[in-house]
Amino acid sequence: MQLSVPPFSELLANTRESAIHLEMRDDYGTNPRLEAWQRGERVDWSDRESWWHPFHQTIADTVARGVIIRRARVVSEPVSEYIRWEHDATHGNIAAGEEVRWLPRSQATGFLVPANDFWLFDGNLLRVHHFAGDGSHVTDELSTDPDTLKLCADAFESIWQRAISHSEYTI
């Protein structure tokens, strides 16, 4: 039986210790912020009001409660245009309190990873993201299966240990 997927903000509100996020795609489709970046528009990071979104506030509120939020991205090199933009936009994630690391796909050989991106909340609730081939989001599902939780947690930790901190990863 598939569990109903509550909003992301609700999942984080119920998180007490940790939330980890693994991203493994080189393209997640388009969005207005990416399109603006492609036109040459850049974020003025000194003007927080212009870029701070509800997502950032949700992350900041969660981190303020003592929850550790880590995000690892496995990327192909040379990186796609989407990843270039994402690397630039990651300043917002860091400012909100996330820890972010990057792992070149060429360094990901040697350990198994799940086929889908995911969030794992407190090690006991998994939100799996499903995407179409063009990078557009299709659906999410939740899992509490102990074997799947362990596989995803172990995969994330393997990647995290090998990955490069955002401040040191250059594209």
TrEMBL record:
Sequence ranges assigned to domain DUF6879 in this UniProt record: 8-170
InterPro entries: DUF6879
Entries under Pfam families matching the protein: DUF6879
The name this protein goes by in its record: DUF6879 domain-containing protein
Lineage: Bacteria, Bacillati, Actinomycetota, Actinomycetes, Kitasatosporales
